[in-house]
Amino acid sequence: MAAVAFNEATRIYPGSDRPAVDKLELEIGDGEFMVLVGPSGCGKSTSLRMLAGLEEVNSGSITIGDRDVTDLPPKDRDIAMVFQNYALYPHMTVADNMGFALKMANVPKAERQQRVLDAAKLLGLEEFLNRKPKALSGGQRQRVAMGRAIVRQPQVFLMDEPLSNLDAKLRVSTRTQIGALQARLGVTTVYVTHDQVEAMTMGDRVAVMSAGLLQQVDSPLSLYDKPKNLFVAGFIGSPAMNLIEGEATEGGVKIGDYTLPIARDVLAKAGNEKTLTVGIRPENLSIAEQGIPLDVVMVEELGADSYLYGTLSGATDNEITGQQYVARISARQAPGRGNTVRLTADPEHLHVFSTSSGDRISD
Amino acid sequence: MPRFLSARPDPQLITLPWDKPLEDWPTDNLVALPRGISRHVVRFVRVGKEIYAFKEVVEHLARHEYEMLRDLNRLATPSVEPFGVVTERYDPDGEVLDSVLITKHLQFSLPYRSLFNRGVRQDTVNRLVDAMVVLLARLHLVGFLWGDVSLSNTLFRRDAGSFAAYLVDAETGELHEELTDGQREHDLSIARTNLFGEFLDVEAGGLLDESLDPQTLVETIESRYRELWAELTEVEEFDGSEMHRIEGRVRRLNALGFDVAELDITTDFAGSTVRIQPKVVDAGHHTRRLLRLTGLDVEENQARRLLNDLDYFRAQTDQQNADEAIVAHQWLQQRFEPVLAAIPSDLRGKLEPAQIYHEVLDHRWFESERAGHEISMPDATKSYVRTVLRNLPDEQVEVPDSDELGRLENPYDPSQGFADGEQDKPYDPWEDDPAAETEADVQPGFLDIEALRRRSAERQKQA
To answer: Where is this region: Disordered (chain B) (predicted)?
Structure first.
């Protein structure tokens, strides 16, 4: 096991003038489960592949433990790509299916058996070691495949969208299993996904990337509660955070005909900026006498709660009127479609961003 | 109603039972062709005169693979032909079923498992390994990162005395402008692991000749690949007085079956040192030449053999100075076509035409040696049909003899192995975990932030 560090690691594809990964600075702790997340083309897979040795590092470096691996071929990096291939061999026992790569690497038989046994215990497969794969359940077969990576005892596990070929139900249960297993093994793991829900539920920490740049790396809760910029604010959370532009005024931000109160010190930090963007999570909005006017377009009932979807009422700017906002409120309070409601939020749940730079202004 | 994506749709496909998982399809249209192991459900289905391979897989992967196979076909890289993707499948209860990728069955193809079934010899295995290495190098030359190199994902066709390998599964593939060394190394290390596993599996099934050692086999693959790649791409530097080495490099590449479309030649100021590096090489040197001369489209080594025979014909008929294209036309009419016309129609599905011609040439040589004088082509053909061809299995669509294989658990799914009466699937407490159960009820797209907060608080308490 070892820590991993990207030190200003950059990858520029031949013929491209913009880096696919731009000076990535990221330290992953020993035993940590780090998730790289972002939309397609953000550089997350490229970063993982730089670590794996599949993509060249054009400048900067990458270390695993205290070894600089920047120029090492993939096989000398002591990493394992999990789930790359999990075809199980029908004529071989579960034990052989798990341990055959060790045989190729000339690991002595006794050690091979021990490592397979250890992995099998961890995976709940101990009593099935002499069976053939067909006499296993679907989940057990998948764990045999995980076992293959585990017996190699690599320093780092790499997983590139490992759940993308599973259906929705299996995806959720496998997600739980991978998380539990990683926690027990304590092997440093770098996991890539485009799915922010997967990232948030699995990672010890999550690195959000966009356009080749690392936007923020933090614990899932910190990303949710204190997004560093507009990109992270909009990307993390489902349904997404409402991001509402308004005019900075004395005491708050004017949205429609309503001035949303903002703490004085936050406004002071905004300086001369005329327009600010206020971020409010759907669950932090509530119906009030005074508040942001919203024309309700759709109501979605979800148990005790309802999601209100609507557009800003009375706004004249086309760009603003087109945008849809979401509020989660108690189902008892839910108005019907076509009504106009007023919504407000506690000051401590407001996220204030500079519209021009996108950076967070509030604490 | 399912949705079909295809360049040339086949109306007969529309009436198939798309509302059933592939696993439960009625067996009347299924063909039990041998094939490699797969993590997905794969079935061969006969529709009219065609046989298609159907693979059930999530939609984005089905589409991705369809696109990849189309690209590979466009780049003239040996791979199966994609036919279409069927999406938006629902069962009668309205539950979503995975998409199906449809590819055409490659005629006269042999999966490795059926090649090993015949008490495989070292020589055959070497040829399979060579074919695999050439395929991998060809894919790498066009910038294709396979990601799942394995015998299971490859089909072989006879190619004169050798084999030609075809890519069958492009699910994990990616097309790049050019591959980095790391990407090629990655494919190679996957190849090593997968092939080692597959050889061990064949061994465990009792089908691998005892003289063959899986470890040596995978080492051979690696070293052969490196040799071939070096010949295809490496810079060669020599003294200006050795200019013949340029011609030598081109000839060596031709002999390996590659054409050099672009050769980079640089010299120093005085012209005393020359550096050469092939920049663009295309596989199929002999295939293209034969195609140009005769219109026959065959595998590389078959083409080489046929071209040799064409040269022999030319010498024999004393036409060394005649136009090559005209002689080729005569050869086709007077040599090639009569041999194939003499094959009884019920035996034509045994082997590909070019392979039959190659074998007749071989047969004639053996018979002539034995007789001590040259046997005529018509006589050699007759003897070949009687003593060899009639006894061969039909390879156009090869269905294995079940006794030879051992009884499979499911003849349509070899990945389940032999039927051996092993226990039913065991109880798995992991899948019965109440925690996992509630998680499984959760919609995958929903972020349960309260659950995250609870978990984080618990962890802090523990710490």
So the answer is: 395-446
